Amino acid sequence: MAEGHRGITRAKELYLNRDYRARELKEEGKKVVGYYCIYVPLEMMHAAGIVPFRIWGSMQEPPSLANNYFIDTSCFYARSCFELGLKGAYDFLDGIVGCFTCDTFERMFQIWRYHIKLPYSHVVAVPHAIHTDPPISLEFFIEELNYFRKSLENFTGKKISDQSLSRSVKPFNEHRALVRELSSLRKKEPPFISGSEVEETIIASMTLPVEEANKLLREVIAETRNSAQHPQNKAVRILIWGTPLDDVAITRLIEESGANVVVEDVCTGMRPFLSDVEATDDPLEGIATRYMDKLTCPIACREAEGTHKEDLDRRLGYLKAMAKDYQVNAAIIQVVSYCCIHLIDALNVKDYLREEAGIPSLIVEHDYNKGALAPLKTRIQAFLETMG
Amino acid sequence: MEEKKKTTSVKYIELAKLGASFPKRRYTEALKGEKPVAWGMAIDGAFPIFQAMDVSRVFPENYGTVCAAKRMSIPYLDICNSEGFSRYLCAYLRTDTGFIRQYVDRQGYPPDAPWGGLAKPNMFIGLIRHRLCDEAYKYLVHGYRRYYPDVPAFFLDIPLPPTTHDYKEVTRYYIRYMAEQYRALTAFVERVVGKKMNEDNLEEAVDTYLETTRVWFEWHNLRKAIPCPMPAQDAWAILAASYWWPADKEVLEYNRKVFAEVKERVDKKIGAAPEEKYRLMWTEGAPWHSIAVLDKILELGAIIVIEGSYYVPGPPPQIPPGADPYEKMAWRHWTNYAYWFDKSRDSTKAFQSERYLDWAREYTIDGVLLHHVLDCRAVSMLLPHIRNVIIEKLKVPSYLWSESMVDTREAPSPEKIMSEMKAFFEVMDHYKKIRQEQGLPVAYP
After folding, report:
1. I need a surface site. Which of A231, B109, B318, B331 has the fewest CB within 10 A?
2. Closest-CA residue in chain B for A309?
3. Which residues contact A368 (CB under 8 A, 6 or more apart)?
4. Facing residues of A236 across strands?
5. Which chain A positions have a beta carbon within 8 Å of B372's beta carbon?
6. Predicted confidence (pLDDT) per residue in A57-97, tens digit
7. Is A196 on the interface with B (CB under 8 A)?
8. A125, A128, A343 ranked by CB distance to B86: nearest
9. What residues in A contact B84, CB-CB < 8 Å?
10. How high is the ipTM of this complex?
């Protein structure tokens, strides 16, 4: 990494060297703890004096070693993350935090703990069914977060006060606001910045302590606003929905096929940044409400006593608004093979976007493998051709 | 229609011959439309609520096994594929999707549907049980409501703590949450069917549920005997009623009779195998469409004495005095798993591997048949881990049996299985010597 680089250049460097800053911090004596899901309450780790570090997979290294421990007919992404762990890519971590979201990552976490010994590990159980009357889900989740708080305190030897929690909420809300601001630079036609550059910047920001991430985002936003160079105007403005895209290969493929990617609802894109933690008397209540109730991952269920259509409006209504806001006219629904949560909702998302927003979609399953994207390219090109 | 082959297995326990009759009767009764019908998934622990509310329950997951056992899945799977569902999704639920599509198109039950079909639902109960399977709620509700858009749904969230938790510290709020979920489910069912729960009926159903699972647990333990009185083929035949309707008094009586028959065989040292030589453990879902091959394996002296974590309840719960019916249900569910989760925290880190390790010791296992279900990740993901820890700690080898759980096009031939099993016998012989040298338990030195 070159010294003194700022803005987009630095974001690109961090995107390519994701452990760079974390390793520096580790050498400085900081505790760096990995996490792998948007449901992990980062504010709490921050309040404990821990630097959270998102765990990534690699589309360039198909799982092989991992298959000795985890069946090969399961999520490529999860296995890839574990593969990197087994190969020592995360040897700088002091611990790992996961949460009960999908059953694959829940099981992967267990294997991770068995084979990759770390001083600290914890899993947060997140309610997926959100029952509000009475608010049993929120009450349970607050208990669970209190248990997490105790666990962090035991690990760091430091008490986490309500005040420190409230303080930690602020930089993360700012992070979310800055990502939204950066992304919004794509609302115009042509966009001020390409989808792949936004994704690289978001990913880069997730490799940094939140305060540094916010600084980087401010630099990129300023640089983009001041730049005279923008992506070309293209007829098709794409929304990407689906599983994590921690490599911009698929986005680039879409861009090279003649479309602009203007927004992505994935957990390495906009999904973790769409909602904030509200200030509440008990800071855990605000944190619990945000992580349990406001994230738009398809793992979450809303009460469904009404019709299927009403349920879709509750769960997917934000997509209609997002599509309108970003002037989207086509969607690519991409799902890593074996992710049943996304595979099932892919059909609902496709129908919903068509019926509610008049937006056509293409569903593509892939193996999270950079070397196997050629068939995807053909399908995406054909889809874009149908858009005229 | 798929090629007709013998799909049923020999029954060694007399009462196993009655195994399918109870579920079949329940499905047929539901088709009459006289009672509200709830679609749900097993092991949600909510059985007494439906029993007490006189709601018929049918289980799409179970219906998938019926179609598989009758080798009638493929046409349904093909319809499901044309609906756009990924072939990587649960094959039981994909089978049902094909059935549902036909039902919706015809506005009636397809004439050739096994057991007459799945009765039209009045409600969906999606089960969110961390560590079970995401599709138990995701496919069941968000998938099936594409076809039944006006049928209301409830999501039952039954978490079990992660293995990073100290169970003693979290039991209080986990039990409370589970009991609250059962109360919320009751309120939902009351709204759908338009009547209130009779608390006396619920108490009675809970007591029946607790007793059925206790007796079930007891007769399973009898299979530790050498020789083993009952193979997996029988246990699978019996389980259907116990697994899906444990709050029904008829099922309790059935289990009591099974216990008596198995006990008699143990007392008289009657084994199921002609000459027991190898004691096997089966992991997870049964090979419904190829179950008959297990009889051939058994004829060679290899018997499955314990099978999959799906199918055996844990020990009876220690329920605190004064617990209400909802709390009792929560304790029952909790106790099915808590011991192994807690134990695995400082050991193999996974409930599944811990439980299989214990069973391998307690049932004096020579080999493990790892059922790699190609279209069910929930039960397959940890198989390599299970294989690794069992051979590492107990020197017991495994055989990977890969197949679709319903699709006979993705099933190994009986000839292939038999050929590989014979080779596996040699592997088991090898490890038996190693266990003997290391002083580890061996059933037949």
Report:
1. B318
2. B149
3. A57, A59, A62, A76, A77, A80, A336, A337
4. A259
5. 71, 73
6. 999 989 999 999 999 999 999 999 999 999 999 999 999 99
7. no
8. A343
9. 347, 363
10. 0.94
